[in-house]
Amino acid sequence: MAKRNKTIKNIKKVDDDTKGVSKIKMFFYWFIIPFLFALALLLIVAQIANINIFEKAKDLTGAGQPEIVTDDVKTNRLEERVVSLQAEIQQKEAEIANLQSDINNSAKENEDLLVEQQRLLDEIEKLQRQQTSTNQEYAEIVSTFEKMSAKSAAPVITKMSDAEALRILNSLKPDTVAKIYEKMTPEEAAKFTELMTKQ
């Protein structure tokens, strides 16, 4: 019984395989063979009519035809390229000229700044010398007032401008200032004391 079932399965399998093959055969018989026959018949008719099918196919598709380039076309292309390159060269030259101009302007500005810097340094040095000289002179004046008697110094200080008198009074020793105040009128002494306290 098992053998019989196995044999039935094998027969069904062979039938299924033959059905698949028969469909392929049907397609081949109905479509492929007639198509090849029609194609062969068309080629024979074209050969008799002296028509080259392959040439016509190339003409229709445009395949295999190189672009026809004449000398005029080549010349025009070269001229266009030359004109384009010349325009590019002129543009680059203009950029170079602008950059060179900027460099020259920067160099001139640097030179001007260096000259101005040197002038300012000279002026600072001159002012420092003047300040040193003024400080020495001022120190001598203060020293002179220190050596003067209070009776002689008081009238001189009262005749000075308030700013100069304050400067000198602030530079003197406190006991010297006290002696000078003693020789001033009370109004003048009060005025200078008030000015000194406001500083």
What's a quick, concise take on this entry?
By secondary structure, the protein is mainly alpha-helical. It contains 7 helices and no strands.
Assign an overall shape. rod-shaped
The major pleated sheet works out as: none
Average pLDDT taken over every residue: 82
Number of helices: 7
Q: Helix share of residues?
A: over 70%
Uncertain spans, ≥5 residues at pLDDT below 50?
Answer: none
Q: Report, as a whole number of angstroms, the end-to-end distance.
A: 137 Å
User: In percent terms, what proportion of residues is strand?
Assistant: under 5%
* Radius of gyration computed on alpha carbons: 60 Å
The structure class reads mainly alpha
Number of strands: 0
The H-and-E topology, N to C, reads as: HHHHHHH
Transmembrane segments: 27-49
Domain Magnesium transporter MgtE intracellular: 116-199
Keywords: Coiled coil, Membrane, Transmembrane, Transmembrane helix
Coiled coil: 75-137
